[in-house]
């Protein structure tokens, strides 16, 4: 029978959805992330025992005093085993998923109960949703939504929805038809019948369905930890992948406690909200006799007061009891993903420690190789330290290399192999394995199924050596493989395992690397650092460190050993132990790009610097802000329109600005305010004002040509801010001199002008824009400056530093620096470019890069003795 390519169809469908509905998935991601953040912020805010107290009050209200005591003890136990943070994350995920599930599922169940056609159509869909293996939902989840909480929430919703739909439908269908008929006979409308008769009577069944939703959601949230969903899922996944019994027991216990609490509370909620439930509760309490006090439950108003009081205490402690975080470095977050292999874990936590010392906020995440590469390609993970290239991870590199950046190899050269204990005689090569499957139980113990080595072993090695029909490759994890190796060695049993070099196992156990005479495993790999696309541009300093990072075998194996000895959850302690044994290594790996600068004699003063939103003004203002901060000043910068800025300079609200175009462009402002200002001097010479058109516009070289081609430009000149001297001169002098008064001059601002220029340029449309030199647009686009034979733009300007008349007295040191400051066209152009590349909001980052690329510039601009 011919093969039906269902898998290919599914893959094509997923690719089509991803490529064509990315806007929808982005919207869903933002909504779910926002909802999760709100709930998690509320739950993570209080101190653990206070939140446990709130949960206990709810348990008292719903189930009585014993349940309240057990609730508090259970959550206190979670806190004592250091699983509180993951538990709150998992609870947040469950609440978000269940909220959305119930909102969607209950109406669907009602619809299915009222329409047999809808019920029949929904049934096979629900069967598919409920019986599909839970982990399968994570695959499209990663592709559509990336790594993190969102794919976990979506997969949880899909997996947990069927019980709510089915139980809602069942509950409504089980309502006695005579009651419904009686309601209808009294003229009750269908909607009122639904809300007053059917739903109240079906509520116990519906609540049972919601209870199942919560249980299934919690189980799926744990599975979602495999794709970076966080919470207890990550703890369980780490425990499994490292065969860590202690962590597994603690995380598993936290899951059990959370599951029992949610199960008992949702079950008891039915007794509070359902009339039938309240009746049953009253009967149960009546039968207790003298033990009635154990089941006494506070009134709803009392419970609400208790929760509110505890909540206010928690909020007060959160506001006043926590110290503000101390800022260090730039504080930017960097996410690092790793497969749970020894060298990957060790180097990931090494970089986490280094980046924290340099003031970053790194976040590390353990993932399988497939999700790691896919997440990096999407931009969810910034960097990984353990890509085995060109062989082991070749399939992932081939698929995703367009979305990744190779930051270079930090270790060379590795090897992949199958190893056996040295006490196994007569097995020295892969050829020797043939015919000896019985000795090894017909099994080769492998590692993670997504690892490149496993793919090479199955696709190539077994075939090349004729082992495919004789041996089965046992997929597991690195930790499971090592555990099995340890057990076999201690029992002196033969075992064949997938290994690689370097690895500490060769020091711990007597092993034989099986030779590969056919070269099926390849010639060996290098260990590479990979960044997401654009990482080096976004984080040039970190990328530079990583490109120069190298460890030798002795350093790597000793680092692995210290991290391993520190234990699960304490990897960074192991890194710190290792760094103490290797003093100076942090400075060698990540030399601080920011030298310690001498303080100026006026350090501590806070000059106010104003600037217009022009490129040279932005660039030079942020440059001086950076330089002054290095000298110990505390500058305040303000972005203002040109008119208010000159007014502020004259009144002393602004101390200085660096973008005064004189003697022509801003002459009217100088003439108006010069008695209150001081001309500190020019730092750039000479500028020009002009109208520019794209070079593909033929026959337009001068302002006279612009007039004769008016229709081609639709009678429009794209201008900048209306208050600038250039716009005033264009309207008052240039336009009348060349007969351009009939042209419409727009005045939406510099940013709008540049956006319009970019749009027209890429559409190859004629456009005339107000520009000036120097400007980076002349480097980005092919433009023609229209000649001004009548000289109406006036003499060329200098760009000057202007200050309030008290500037020299208030800031004598800064004033002296400004008087001697000059910039060349190349310096200004490269500074503007670095700031443009850094992007809006990252001006400081662009300036830092420029300073790094111009060593000594701080001392040149602001010399101190």
Automatic annotation (TrEMBL):
InterPro entries: ABC_Gly_betaine_transp_sub-bd, MetI-like, MetI-like_sf. PANTHER family: GLYCINE BETAINE/PROLINE BETAINE TRANSPORT SYSTEM PERMEASE PROTEIN PROW, GLYCINE BETAINE_PROLINE BETAINE TRANSPORT SYSTEM PERMEASE PROTEIN PROW. The keyword Membrane applies. Keywords: Cell membrane, Membrane, Transmembrane, Transmembrane helix, Transport. This is ABC transporter permease/substrate binding protein. Its main location: membrane. It is a multi-pass membrane protein. It comes from Streptomyces siderophoricus. Residues 87-266 form the ABC transmembrane type-1 domain. The keyword Membrane applies. Pfam families: BPD_transp_1, OpuAC. The chain crosses the membrane at residues 49-78, 90-114, 134-159, 201-227, 239-262, 302-320. It is found in: Cell membrane; Membrane. It comes from the Bacteria. In the N-terminal section; belongs to the binding-protein-dependent transport system permease family.
């Amino acid at each position: 029978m011919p093969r039906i390519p269902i898998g290919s169809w599914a893959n094509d469908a997923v690719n089509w959805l991803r490529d064509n509905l990315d806007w929808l998935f982005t919207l869903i991601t933002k909504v779910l992330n926002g909802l999760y953040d709100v709930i998690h912020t509320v739950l993570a805010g209080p101190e653990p025992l206070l939140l446990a107290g709130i949960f206990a009050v709810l348990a008292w209200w719903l189930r009585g005093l014993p349940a309240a005591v057990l609730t508090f003890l259970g959550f206190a136990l979670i806190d004592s085993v250091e699983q509180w943070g993951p538990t709150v994350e998992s609870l947040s995920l469950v609440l978000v998923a269940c909220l959305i599930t119930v909102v969607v599922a209950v109406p669907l169940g009602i619809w299915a109960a009222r329409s047999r056609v809808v019920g029949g159509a929904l049934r096979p869909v629900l069967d598919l949703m409920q019986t599909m293996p839970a982990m399968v939902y994570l695959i499209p989840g990663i592709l559509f939504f990336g790594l993190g909480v969102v794919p976990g929430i979506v997969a949880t919703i899909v997996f947990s929805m069927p019980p709510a739909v089915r139980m809602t439908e069942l509950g409504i269908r089980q309502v006695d038809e005579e009651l419904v008929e009686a309601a209808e006979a009294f003229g009750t409308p269908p909607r009122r019948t639904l809300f007053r008769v059917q739903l109240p009577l079906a509520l116990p069944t519906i609540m049972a369905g919601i209870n199942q939703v919560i249980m299934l959601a919690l189980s799926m949230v744990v599975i979602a930890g495999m794709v970076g969903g966080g919470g207890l899922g990550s703890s369980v996944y780490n425990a499994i992948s490292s065969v860590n019994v202690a962590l597994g027991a603690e995380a598993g216990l936290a899951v059990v406690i959370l599951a029992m609490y949610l199960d008992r509370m949702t079950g008891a909620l039915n007794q509070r909200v359902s009339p039938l439930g309240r009746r049953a509760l009253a009967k149960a309490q009546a039968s207790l006799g003298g033990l009635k006090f154990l089941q006494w439950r506070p009134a709803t108003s009392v419970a609400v007061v208790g929760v509110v009081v505890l909540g206010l205490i928690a909020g007060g402690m959160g506001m006043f009891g926590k110290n503000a975080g101390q800022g260090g470095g730039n504080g930017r977050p960097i996410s690092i993903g790793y497969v749970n292999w020894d060298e990957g874990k060790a180097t990931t936590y090494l970089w986490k420690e280094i980046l924290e010392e340099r003031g970053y906020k790194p976040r590390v995440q353990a993932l399988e190789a497939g999700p790691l590469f896919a997440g990096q390609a999407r931009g969810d993970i910034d960097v990984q330290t353990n890509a085995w290239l060109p062989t082991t991870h070749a399939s992932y590199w081939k698929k995703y290399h367009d979305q990744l950046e190779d930051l270079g190899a930090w270790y060379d050269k590795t090897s992949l192999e199958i190893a056996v204990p040295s006490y196994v005689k007569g097995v020295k090569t892969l050829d020797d394995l043939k015919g000896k499957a019985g000795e090894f139980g017909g099994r080769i113990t492998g590692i993670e199924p997504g690892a490149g080595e496993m793919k090479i072993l199955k696709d190539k090695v077994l075939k090349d050596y004729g082992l495919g029909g004789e041996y089965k490759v046992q997929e597991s994890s690195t930790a499971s493989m090592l555990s099995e190796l340890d057990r076999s060695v201690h029992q002196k049993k033969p075992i064949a395992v997938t290994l690689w070099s370097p690895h500490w196992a060769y020091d711990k156990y007597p092993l034989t690397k099986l030779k590969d005479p056919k070269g099926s495993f390849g010639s060996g790999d290098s260990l590479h650092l990979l960044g997401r696309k654009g990482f080096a541009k976004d984080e040039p300093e970190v990328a530079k460190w990583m490109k120069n990072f190298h460890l030798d075998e002795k350093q790597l194996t000793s680092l692995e050993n210290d991290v391993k000895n520190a234990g699960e959850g304490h990897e960074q302690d192991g890194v710190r132990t290792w760094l103490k044994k290797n003093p100076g290594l942090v400075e060698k790996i990540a030399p601080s790009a920011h030298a310690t600068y001498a303080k100026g004699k006026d350090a501590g003063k806070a000059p106010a610097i104003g600037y217009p939103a022009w490129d040279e003004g932005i660039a030079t203002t942020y440059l001086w802000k950076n330089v002054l901060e290095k000298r110990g000043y505390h500058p305040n910068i303000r972005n203002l329109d040109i008119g208010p800025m000159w007014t502020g300079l004259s009144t002393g609200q602004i101390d200085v600005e660096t973008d005064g175009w004189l003697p022509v462009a801003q002459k009217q402002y100088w003439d108006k305010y010069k008695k209150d200002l001081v001309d500190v001097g020019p730092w750039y010479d000479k500028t020009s004002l002009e109208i520019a058109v794209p070079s593909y516009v033929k026959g337009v070289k001068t302002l006279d040509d612009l007039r004769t081609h008016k229709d081609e430009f639709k009678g429009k000149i794209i201008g900048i801010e209306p208050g600038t001297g250039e716009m005033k001169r264009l309207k008052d002098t240039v336009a009348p001199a060349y007969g351009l008064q009939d042209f419409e001059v727009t005045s939406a601002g510099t940013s709008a002008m540049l956006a319009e220029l970019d749009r027209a340029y890429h559409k190859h449309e004629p456009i005339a824009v107000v520009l000036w030199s120097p400007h980076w647009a002349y480097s980005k686009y092919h433009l023609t400056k229209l000649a001004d034979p009548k000289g109406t733009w006036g003499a060329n300007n200098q760009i000057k530093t202007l200050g309030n008349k008290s500037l020299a007295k208030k800031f004598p040191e800064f004033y002296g620096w400004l008087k001697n400051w000059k910039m060349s066209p190349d310096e200004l152009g490269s500074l503007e470019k670095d700031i443009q590349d850094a992007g809006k909001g990252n001006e400081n980052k662009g300036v830092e890069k420029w300073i790094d690329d111009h060593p000594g510039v701080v001392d040149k601009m602001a010399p101190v003795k």
